[in-house]
Each structure stands twice: as C-alpha cells, then as structure tokens.
C-alpha cells in the first residue's frame, strides 16, 4: 500500500523533530546551553527537570559540580528530599544556581509547569538574599567560613549573577518567566548596587585604575587571598568578564566609562604575545603536561595572576610560594589549573565601537591613539605602556607616516624581539647602553631546524625599513656554543648607534636586498665571523672586539655592489688570549670589506685576510685598507690579493657615497 502524502509529511516532521530534540551532550552545562529549544519539551528533559527540582534547596540555591542529568536511585531521591531544608554547600560558584535557573527558564518556555516558574523565582530570591549591603556577593550563602565570604569574581560568579539580574531589571525576553513589577524594581536596585561594588573594587596601582582581583575583602574591598595557590593579585581572566558586563550598560555613568577605559589600557599593557601554551595529552585526552613555548607574534594571552604592584605574572603550587614560571610548580597544579587566558581579547575587540558609542569623541580618540602609538614606553616595573618590548612593537602601527618611538627603560629584557617588515620608521631607544639589555640564548643546536638554523637564532630581528636603535645592549647569551646571532638586520636604512652588540660566533648578521645600514659609536664583540652578511654597512667610531683567535668579518657582498662592509675610524681590540685574528674571509666570492683610518691591535695577523679555500675570491673579492695604525697594521705583510688604497680611492668612501640612494639625511636624524 502506498502511504498518503499527509502521512509522509507527518512522518517527516516526526523524524526531524525526534532528531532535533535528541540530547547528545554529556556535560551538564552543555545540556543547558547547547540543546535546541524544542529539546526542553521532551520527556528526557522533563525527567532531568525532576532531578533539578530535587537538588534545589528550600533557600532557593543549588550545590555545585553536580551532573544533574544522571539518573537518581530511589535512595538518592529520598536523601535529597531529606536535606531540602539544609543550607550547606549552597553556592553560586562554578556556575551553580545561575545555570539551573537558566535550565528552569528554558523548561518553562516549552512546558508551562508552574513548578519550573516557582523554582526560577526561588533562585532569583536567593540571589537577592545573598547580596551584601555593599553590592557584592560571597561564594557561598549562607556564609561559609574562610575565604568563601569574600566578594567573589572568581570563575565569573558575581558576573553570572549580575547578568541574570540585569535581564530581569530590563524585562528582556532572555528568560521566559516574567516577574512582578516589585521584583523588577528589586532587580534594578540590586544591579545598581552590584555595579557600584565593581567600580569601588577596581584596583588602583600607583594611583592609576587597572583591573580586579578574583576575590575582594567583603569589608575593606581590597584584593584578598583564596586558596593557597590563589593569592591576592590582578586577574587577567575574571577582569575581562567584568569589563564586558560594564560595556553592556546603556548610558553608562562617567565612573563606568572611566573603569572600562582604564581596564582597556591595562589589558593592552599586560598582554603576552611571545608565548603559546603546549598541552600534552594521554590516550584518554587528559592533560598530562603543559609547557609555555616562546613564540614570535603569538596570539595575545594574559596571565591569570599578576602582581598588584607591577603586573608581573606569577604562579603558585599548593604551598603558596610564588614562582615566575609554570615550569617551577608541580604537575598537579601546573596541569590542573588555567594559568593563562585569552578572554580579554574580546574586550579589546569591542572597545573601539563601545568608546565611540559612549561619548569618546573620534578626535579625542585619534589624538590619544596618536600619542600612544608614536611614543610607547616599555618598563619591567609596570610603569610604562608595556612590560615587554615585543608587546610594544606589536602595538605599533603598520607603515606609519611618522616615526614611532619605543622607549625602553633600564632592565634586563629576556625576550626575542622582532621588528616585522610592516613596522617601518620604528626607533628603539634605551634608557642607557649599559643598563637596558635585551638578551636571549638561542643557538644553532638549540633551534635545530636544519642547515639554516643560524638565521632563527637572533635575539633581535629587524625586518622593517627606516629602523633605528640606540642606547642599549643586544646580547645573545648562549655562550661559545656555535652560531648564535645577537642582532639580525635584514632591512634597508637601518641606523644603530651607541649600542653594545654582544655574542660569540655570528654575532651580527647584515642583509637585505640593496640594504644600506649605518653603525655609529657601537661596541661589537664575537669570536668567528661575528660580522657577516651581504648588506652595505658603514661602521664609524666603533670598537670591534675579538674574544678569541678567529675571523672578524665574513662578507657575502652581491656581485656588482659598490661597497660591502666599511670600517672608518674604528678600534680593533681583543681578549689577551686572542692573538691571531683575521680581518675577514669571504663567505661569498664577491665579498667586500674595507678598513679606513682604523686602530688595529696586535692580535691582527700580519697576513690580514684568508680566502676560506676559495681561490676565486682572490680574483673577485675586495679586501682593502687605508691609513690604518697600530701593531696590527702591517701592510707589507698582507696577502698579495688584498689592497692598500691610495688617497684618491679612499676619498670615495664617504657616508654620502656608501649610503646613497636612501632617504635624504635619514642617517643623521
């Protein structure tokens, strides 16, 4: 028999409804938030709702961490009924009460069972009753002794509550149950008190508003400790949800606007963009190890706990002792806790639109942004715009019309720094050459990326044209362990002045298509080929210091290039153990290296130059000197294929000729 069209249509909708209404989620919170609306009208949902009603205490709240979808035995049901009037362990922690209220609202939207409505309203009343007079909420109510009495932002507890009360106060359609006018008015007052508490608990660091702690003392409102590994600190995670809540308020007060603006600045200042979390999972998908891997230009993350006075991230084991890295704490806490978060990125994403909407004039914002991006301060103590140099560079505009200055205060900055190709016109200025230090310890073996591993080792990598750096130290701290670049410049029109560039083998790499670079008043040290590459580079008034007997330069000047490495008025010095140092050898056969008016110590070998087993280099390379002095200057003993320039030839080696075809006077600015 052929079924009728009407029957087929009925069967189609019945099958589809059954598929759409089927619960496929195992976690209680996922069941509530991810199931489609029609599932809440199924028999399965009704059965779970009976459990939720049993778990709710007479006071109105629920205990936490219960998988309420799990079937209950008759004995368990009897026990839950017996403790209905108990107030023990009733909480808003870990989403408890808030998520059960949402479940009941979704149930009532599909099934008009008054028990669901009453359950929701009892939960709402519980939230009202639990609120402190100052507007905050404890973690447990009735109060549980210990840190649980603190005002609790931890795990978004208070934000979850305020989001419920906000929906009620604004009489939105988010919840299916519509309270009385009396309850709506009560919700408005409760919400306002909660926001007032948030404003009053925002932490001032040296007089400047920043963010919030996971817990605040219920009397003093000061940041407070919780568990042994949850010490008073500024929170990169909880603060994000607080700010997102504040940003949803229509017609915010001046205090709310200031709170949001201040928090946004703090999030920009404290973001981390050179680390990524690597998780190691077992066969069951459980985390068995976490490591933070140094990564250039990583997606921004924030530490869960930061020092109150300087925003430095810290980590704790159950002994409560602060550590600088998660690697320093045991595997139980390292792998069983969320130490980093990307939650604040949502604040930064939404901030501009919020600012314009809420009265921050475009002209003001532009002026503020211009000041911010054209002069950025980096300070380890948190007194600047950023605590990490890379974060400041990441915050700089791409291809700016005007120079962007990143001023780095004294301190030892243990980080790899990259100035990308799009960060042109960037000036990196240290507070002092001796005390502003950028250091990292990558080397060829450590990188282990094949034959070209050397080029990944740089402590500072410059790719953006029209770059300048002054008054600081750049160091590769790996020691004498093979190729290890301190500074790599693969950009055009780069100026390096009054800097220490420290390393061993391959300290300074200079390259870039038709690139011209200028070094003035610098100290450069290394062992083997410690100035190498194919760029045209002028060194003036620099000290070139050899740590051991080896080679100073290894030029790879392209064929047809007028100048390679040029040293003018430089001083060549060495450690006492370095007694046999060559001026250079050819990395490529068209290498050019010239020394003019330089003071050469006795460590320079009489023959001066070496061909690196490349006979063709003797025909094509230009290795020359002019008017040098010192015990190491022995022109009559130099290899026959090198040159001693005549005055007429030496006069061509002017800064204008060497660095021509560049922006007018770029090197003197």
UniProtKB/TrEMBL annotation:
The active site is at residue 529. The keyword Transmembrane does not apply. It is an enzyme of class 3 (hydrolase). Pfam families: Pec_lyase, Pectinesterase. Pathway: Glycan metabolism; pectin degradation; 2-dehydro-3-deoxy-D-gluconate from pectin: step 1/5. GO terms for molecular function: pectate lyase activity. Residues 376-660 form the Pectinesterase catalytic domain. PROSITE patterns: PECTINESTERASE_1, PECTINESTERASE_2. InterPro entries: Pectate_lyase, Pectin_lyas_fold, Pectin_lyase_fold/virulence, Pectinesterase_Asp_AS, Pectinesterase_cat, Pectinesterase_Tyr_AS. It comes from the Bacteria. Keywords: Aspartyl esterase, Hydrolase, Lyase. Its EC number is 3.1.1.11. Belongs to the pectinesterase family. This is Pectinesterase. The lineage of its organism: Bacteria, Pseudomonadati, Bacteroidota, Flavobacteriia, Flavobacteriales. The gene is pelA.
């Amino acid at each position: 028999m052929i079924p009728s069209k009407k029957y087929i249509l009925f069967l189609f909708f019945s099958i589809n409804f059954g598929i759409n209404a089927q619960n496929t989620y195992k976690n209680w919170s996922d069941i509530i938030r991810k199931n489609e609306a029609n599932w809440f009208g199924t028999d399965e949902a009704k059965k779970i709702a009976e459990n939720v009603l049993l778990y709710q205490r007479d006071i109105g709240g629920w205990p936490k961490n219960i998988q309420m979808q799990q079937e209950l035995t008759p004995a368990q049901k009897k026990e839950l009924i017996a403790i209905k009037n108990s107030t023990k362990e009733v909480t808003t922690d870990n989403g408890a009460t808030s998520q059960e209220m949402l479940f009941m609202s979704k149930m009532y939207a599909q099934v008009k069972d008054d028990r669901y409505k009453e359950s929701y309203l009892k939960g709402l009343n519980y939230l009202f009753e639990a609120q402190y007079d100052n507007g905050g909420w404890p973690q447990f109510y009735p109060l549980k002794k210990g840190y649980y009495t603190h005002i609790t932002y931890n795990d978004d507890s208070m934000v979850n509550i305020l989001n419920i009360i906000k929906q009620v106060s604004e009489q939105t359609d988010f919840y299916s149950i519509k309270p009385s006018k009396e309850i709506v008015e009560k919700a408005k007052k409760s919400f306002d008190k909660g926001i007032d508490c948030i404003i009053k608990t925002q932490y001032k660091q040296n007089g400047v508003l920043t963010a919030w702690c996971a817990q605040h003392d219920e009397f003093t409102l000061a940041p407070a400790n919780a568990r042994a590994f949850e010490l008073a600190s500024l929170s990169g995670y909880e603060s994000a949800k607080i700010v997102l809540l504040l940003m949803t308020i229509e017609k915010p007060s001046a205090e709310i606007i200031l709170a949001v603006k201040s928090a946004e600045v703090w999030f920009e200042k404290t973001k981390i963009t050179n680390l990524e979390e690597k998780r190691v999972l077992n066969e069951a998908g459980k985390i068995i190890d976490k490591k933070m891997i140094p990564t250039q230009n990583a997606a921004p993350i924030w530490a869960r706990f930061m020092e109150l006075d300087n925003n430095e991230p810290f980590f704790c084991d159950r002994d409560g002792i602060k550590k600088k890295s998660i690697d320093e704490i045991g595997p139980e806490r390292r792998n069983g806790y969320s130490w980093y978060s990307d939650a604040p990125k949502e604040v930064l994403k939404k901030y501009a639109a919020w600012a314009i909407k809420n009265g921050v004039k475009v002209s003001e914002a532009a002026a503020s942004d211009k000041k911010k991006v054209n002069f950025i301060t980096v300070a380890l103590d948190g007194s600047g715009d950023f605590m990490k140099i890379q974060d400041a560079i990441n915050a700089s505009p791409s291809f700016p019309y005007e120079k962007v200055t990143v001023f780095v205060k004294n301190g030892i900055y243990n980080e790899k720094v990259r100035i990308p190709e799009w960060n042109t016109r960037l000036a990196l200025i240290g507070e002092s050459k001796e005390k502003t230090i950028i250091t990292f310890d990558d080397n060829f073996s450590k990188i282990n990326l094949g034959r070209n591993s050397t080029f990944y080792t740089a402590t500072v990598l410059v790719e953006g044209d029209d770059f300048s750096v002054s008054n600081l130290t750049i160091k590769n701290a790996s020691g004498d362990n093979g190729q290890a670049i301190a500074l790599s410049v693969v950009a055009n029109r780069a100026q390096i002045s009054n800097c220490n560039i420290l390393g061993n083998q391959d300290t300074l790499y200079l390259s870039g298509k038709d690139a011209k670079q200028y070094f003035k008043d610098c100290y450069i040290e290394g062992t083997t080929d410690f100035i190498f590459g194919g760029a045209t580079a002028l060194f003036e008034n620099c000290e070139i210091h050899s740590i051991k007997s080896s080679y100073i330069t290894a030029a790879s000047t392209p064929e047809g290039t007028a100048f390679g490495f040029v040293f003018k008025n430089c001083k060549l010095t060495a450690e006492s153990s370095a007694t046999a140092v060559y001026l250079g050898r050819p990395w490529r056969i068209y290498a050019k290296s010239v020394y003019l008016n330089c003071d050469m110590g006795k460590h320079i070998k009489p023959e001066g130059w070496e061909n690196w087993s490349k006979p063709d280099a003797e025909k094509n390379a230009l290795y020359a000197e002019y008017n040098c002095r010192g015990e190491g200057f022995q022109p009559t003993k130099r290899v026959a294929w090198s040159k001693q320039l005549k005055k007429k030839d030496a006069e061509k080696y002017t800064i204008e000729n060497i660095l021509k075809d560049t922006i007018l006077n770029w090197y003197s600015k």
